[in-house]
Amino acid sequence: MGGRYHTREGLATIDAGRAAVVDSRPMGLLRRLERALERGLDAVGGLLGAGGLSERQLERIVADEVDTTRGPEGRPVLLNTFAVHVASANLASFRSAPDELVRRLEAAIIAAAEARGLPFPVGLDVRLSGDPEQAPGSARVEASWQGRPPRLELLNLRSARRHVVVGPSVVVGQAPTCGIVLPSEYVSREHARLSLVGDGWRVTDLGSSNGTKINGARVREADLRNNDTLALGPLVFRVEVR
Q1: What superfamily does domain 52-144 belong to in CATH?
Q2: For the structural domain made of 152-241, what CATH number should be given?
Q3: CA–CA separation, 197 vs 152, rounded Å?
Q4: What is the pLDDT of residues 163-202, one digit of tens each?
Q5: Range 183-187 contact pairs with CB under 8 angstroms and sequence separation of 24 or more
Q6: Domain residue spans in the chain?
Q7: DSSP 90
């Protein structure tokens, strides 16, 4: 049997065993739904940006351009220069700051290379720009290989301070004459040398008291790879090769 009756929540209708409660307060439910919809649209807008291009979609578009070419010695090298063009409206509407988004694109390129068993992109350079002639919701990627020495950065995992290695060879230690000065009593005056060798970087311990370690293993000399952990005495750094 069907029927209607009033409850504290509102007006209920009973029909064939089904019950539906309708909010009797003027527009209460509708207003709550409108606010929820507005919050959802705001979240989607921040994720997708203008024209429906999301940051994740842009990462996939750039990762799809990962490929190899022949280097000067005939060896396969990964394309390392990516000029990424998006519509100006898309660039302005992305939630991430441009520098942060560039780092995410770099990570997507490296992950794509690793997944395909390709060599590491030495000297990786990603540039993101807004193009007023680019159609909203689309992206254009110009990928190429440029023979440039890879840049080395050391990120202190405790202080978050970043050291950029300038020059083909830099001494790291406590002495003020070092290229990178580490003011710690547990670091030797001239603790280690960072050298550009071929198309990569190498660390050489200079007879330090507390040693040099790569990924937890003490070394006298070793090549540095992206995301390695480098310990100079008690100071630990993440290696970033770009």
Answers
A1: FhaA, phosphopeptide-binding domain (DUF3662) (3.30.2320.60)
A2: 2.60.200.20
A3: 12
A4: 998 778 899 999 999 999 999 999 999 999 999 876 689 9
A5: 184/233, 184/234, 184/235, 186/210, 186/233, 186/234, 186/235, 187/232, 187/233, 187/235
A6: 52-144, 152-241
A7: H
